[in-house]
Specification:
It is a single chain. The N terminus is likely disordered. Helix 4 runs parallel beside helix 6, helix 6 runs parallel beside helix 9 and helix 7 runs antiparallel to helix 8. The chain has two domains: 79 residues, Orthogonal Bundle (Multidrug-efflux Transporter Regulator, Chain: A, Domain 2), CATH 1.10.1660.10; 119 residues, no CATH class. The termini are far apart. 67% of the residues lie in helices and 3% in strands. Strand 1 and strand 2 form a beta hairpin. The chain is globular and about 70 Å long.
């Protein structure tokens, strides 16, 4: 397998990073755990930068690794390709690998670490498969939206002052992880309040 990347896929090259080891395409796929085909597809969609060109060969930096890992993580959480593209568009082109790595941690507080089969749980309560699937999709859609919006808040409002105060990306990830119970509790409280408001509005519309 050659490390060369076709011109119609790679586009213009990026400058070498100030330091760090460059990877060949094979080394990149081994590092991230994906295929050559996927790397080229993500590049063609603008989800990761084009490779650094050296003659006919393409090389990859820590920035490529970080962005590929983020894309794979978003896929693992059920993000559609369109949703991933919108998410990646909000990340500045000059973001460092550490900045990008923050997003990996910011997904965890909302999406959680354990798999919960909502549809199966509702079906066990006698809910029809169609209704159970619809409810599961609502949870998934809103979970992705909350994850994206909270990630943006942390990236723009929490991370800059935290970094200026001397905090590292690893320390911020640890802080976000510890805030997970609060995040879940806040979502549950908001959901319960919305359900109460909806029930009260329904009662007010019913004929007496």
């Amino acid at each position: 397998m050659t490390d060369a990347v076709p011109d119609d896929v790679s586009g213009e090259s990026y400058d070498d990073p100030a330091d760090g080891t460059l990877l060949t395409l094979d080394e990149l796929t081994d590092r991230v755990g994906t295929s050559v085909r996927n790397v080229r597809f993500y590049t063609s969609r603008g989800l990761v930068p084009p490779p650094i060109r050296r003659g006919r060969s393409g090389y990859y930096s820590a920035d490529h690794v970080a962005r590929l890992e983020l894309v794979r993580e978003l896929q693992g959480h059920g993000f559609t390709l369109a949703a991933i593209e919108k998410y990646v568009e909000r990340i500045p082109a000059d973001a460092t690998p550490s900045d990008i790595a923050l997003h990996l941690s910011l997904l965890a507080p909302v999406t959680g670490e354990r798999h919960v089969d909502v549809a199966e749980g509702l079906a066990s309560l006698g809910v029809s498969p169609e209704a159970a699937a619809a409810v599961a999709e609502v949870y998934a859609d809103h979970g992705r939206q909350v994850a994206a919006e909270l990630s943006e808040i942390v990236r723009t409002l929490v991370w800059p002052p935290f970094r200026e105060a001397g905090g590292t990306a690893e320390q911020l990830r640890e802080m976000v992880h510890r805030l997970k119970p609060l995040t879940v509790a806040g979502l549950v409280a908001a959901y319960e309040q919305a359900m109460d408001d909806s029930a009260a509005a329904y009662d007010g519309r019913r004929p007496h």
